[in-house]
Specification:
By secondary structure, this protein is largely without helices or strands. It is 6% helix and 0% strand. The protein contains 1 helix and no strands. The radius of gyration is 22 Å and the shape is extended.
Length: 83
């Protein structure tokens, strides 16, 4: 067969090639016209969903970035200390 490890590109992840998005691009369709969607859960079970502030999960659209910390009302300009 003459197949070697470097014969084909590495499609794991999304760093060197489009990876999953070669087919999961909303352009490929099944015989009945249904699109192959971009949701990771179509093929994968995500086990890291419990991670907080995960850049990868945010990039994949699985997790929202954490909210910005609210400004401390006591240190806000013009705030009065209980008069």
């Amino acid at each position: 067969m003459q197949v070697t490890w470097n014969l084909y590109p590495n499609h794991i992840g999304h760093q060197e090639t489009p990876g999953c998005f070669r087919c999961h691009d909303n352009k490929h369709k099944t015989a009945d016209g249904a699109k192959v969607g971009k949701k990771c859960s179509t093929c994968h079970n995500l086990v890291v969903e419990e991670e907080t502030d995960s850049k990868l999960l945010q990039e994949l659209g699985v997790q929202e970035p954490p909210p910005e910390p609210a400004a401390n009302a006591e240190s806000a300009p013009g705030a009065s200390a209980g008069t």
